[in-house]
Amino acid sequence: EKGEIRRHPRASMGVARNLGKTELVQELIISHHEPGYPRARTREQAHSFELARLLRLADKVDALKSKRSYKPGFSDSVCKQLLLEEGFKGELIDLFLLLYSKGSNY
């Protein structure tokens, strides 16, 4: 499952391209796990793109809250602590956790 997780930004960008989505949307999709993968950008390069960072936060909240084959779903307090350690702002974390709890599609 971890391999699939690492491949999904490129695969999702391909889907967006095939659907005729703009280059901005494609860039947001492929950049939402940076720094790290798939392009190994530095934190400064990746976090200068704030929209991708918001998408990354939404994706992280979903990943942390969801039960996976290799981990349980985490509580809001555990999620918040992990996200704060990654440098996300508390107010944004609280908002995304609230949206998640309400079943919002962000």
Overview in brief:
The protein is mostly helical and 106 residues long.
What does this structure look like?
- There is one protein chain.
- This protein has 6 helices and no strands.
- It has 106 residues and is mostly helical.
- It has helices at 2-18, 23-31, 43-47, 50-65, 76-85, 90-101.
- The two termini are 24 Å apart.
General form: globular
**What share of residues is helical?**
55-70%
Q: Which structural class do you get from the secondary structure elements?
A: mainly alpha
**% residues in beta strands:** under 5%
Rg (CA only): 14 Å
SSE order: HHHHHH
Provide key terms for this protein:
mainly alpha, globular, 106 residues
In terms of topology, how is this protein built?
Blueprint: H1 2-18, H2 23-31, H3 43-47, H4 50-65, H5 76-85, H6 90-101
